[in-house]
Amino acid sequence: MEKPHRAVIAGANGFIGQFLSAHLIAQGWQVCGLVRKIPAEPVDGVSYQLWNGQSLGEWTSQLEGADLLVNLVGRSVNCRFTAENRQQILNSRIQSTQLLAESINQIEMPPKLWVNASGISGYAQNGAPGNDESAALDGEGFLAEVVRQWEDALFSAEIPSSVRRIAMRTGVVFGNHPGSAWTKLTQLARLMLGGPVGSGKQGVSWIAIGDYCRALEHLFHQHQLAGPVNFTSPNPLSNAEMMAAIRQLENRPFGAPAFSWMIHLAAPIVGIDPSLVLDSYWCLPEKLQSSGFHFTTAKISQMAQWGR
């Protein structure tokens, strides 16, 4: 009998980490989750190992002979971009990536594939048709700089050449989970507040959680894939189009708009930076599609299967 593949997921307690863990377990993988706290409701079949994301420890042995290492660690960007929060956002990503590189150099059999989270905010803001992975990371602003330093920590790390490295440049991940973007947007639509935000023309590059999990496993089997990979649907859309589609799914004919000046006034009260909803990114998953990956949720209208 063939030995099952084994994955180690750093940051397994988050929204994405929970879904990814459950997906891999369902596909016959063995999964170890590196977490700061053992979850009260663990994912069935996952073994958890405590770590602090800052120093080596017993958890390092979990990487020995692993087939896949996934790093999802990073302080949430859903906050005000104060000096302290900016430093935490950057440090959490850089330190965890550097620590994993250090741990790889401590073991005899390093993982075959290291997949590190990244973001699409490194790209310059643009209009349709969109950026694929050949576009430069020449975006401006804080989040663009975070992406550049994050990916540099991954690709400049001096680790064995046998370890294939991929940076997942991820858009907004939609799925039914408390506190997720999709849950918040559908709640707004039900309250008749799901109108366009700002101009409504800004691009939204998104991916359904089911396709995210399937795409990540797809990377493992596509040995020619390395470097940056866009984790976005092949159908980015404007904010106005997205909100209209969500209203239709929720059977709401109307949604009150939120003008840009409202966003700038409300953002400090809500505790977010206005750029999170007003910036524009149109991205395309060229590497995933050219390698044969098929999206099962390519359009927002198909989100009904994940939205409730």
TrEMBL record:
Under the heading SUPFAM superfamilies, the entry gives: NAD(P)-binding Rossmann-fold domains (SSF51735)
Q: Highest taxon of the source?
A: Bacteria
Q: Extract the Pfam families matched here.
A: Epimerase
Q: Identify the residues that the record assigns to the NAD-dependent epimerase/dehydratase domain, covering every copy.
A: 8-222
- NCBIfam families in the record, alphabetically? yfcH
The UniProt entry's sequence similarity note says: Belongs to the NAD(P)-dependent epimerase/dehydratase family. SDR39U1 subfamily.
The protein here is known as TIGR01777 family oxidoreductase
Question: What is the native source organism of this protein?
Answer: Persicirhabdus sediminis
Taxonomy of the source species: Bacteria, Pseudomonadati, Verrucomicrobiota, Verrucomicrobiia, Verrucomicrobiales
